[in-house]
Structure formats: C-alpha cells, structure tokens
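Here comes an entry:

___
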Amino acid sequence: MVVVEASVSGFFRTILIIIGAIVALRFLGQLMIAKRNMEEERAMNERQRKFEQERSEKLKKFGKISILGGSKKKTSDSDYTDVVDVDYEEIKE
C-alpha cells in the first residue's frame, strides 16, 4: 500500500500545471480562430474577385447580340443557300 502525502509545494505545482494548461489551450484556441478567420477572408476575397470578373465580362458583352444562339462554330456560306434577304423600313417618330 502506497501512502501519498499532500505538501504545499506539490499543491502549488499542481495549480501552476493547471494554469499553464489553461493558458496553452486558450492560446491554441486563439490561433485556431485566427486561422479560420484568415481562411474565411481568403474565400470571401476569391468570391469577390470572381464576382468582379463576371461583372466586367457581362459589362463588356452588354448590348451585344449572339445570332448563332450559343453555337460558336463557323459555318460555311453553303449552309445559307435557302436564306432570302428581306428589306426593312426604318420607323421614324
């Protein structure tokens, strides 16, 4: 049977170990929060950059009309043999 005696120096050492562990855990928690905030900021900046890029592309294409309806293939003139030219009149107000 082992007899354990309590001493004042052992008690203070235990208290210091507990305080040190709490301080270390708080420090690690602050580091993890800072890392998470940096990752969120990086993701937000990436979304903002993509949004600005899309916006600039849409502003560049604003008012332009695509006749081929999304098909970007070049077609030869032989595809348009049955097309008839139609005249139009301008409407003046």
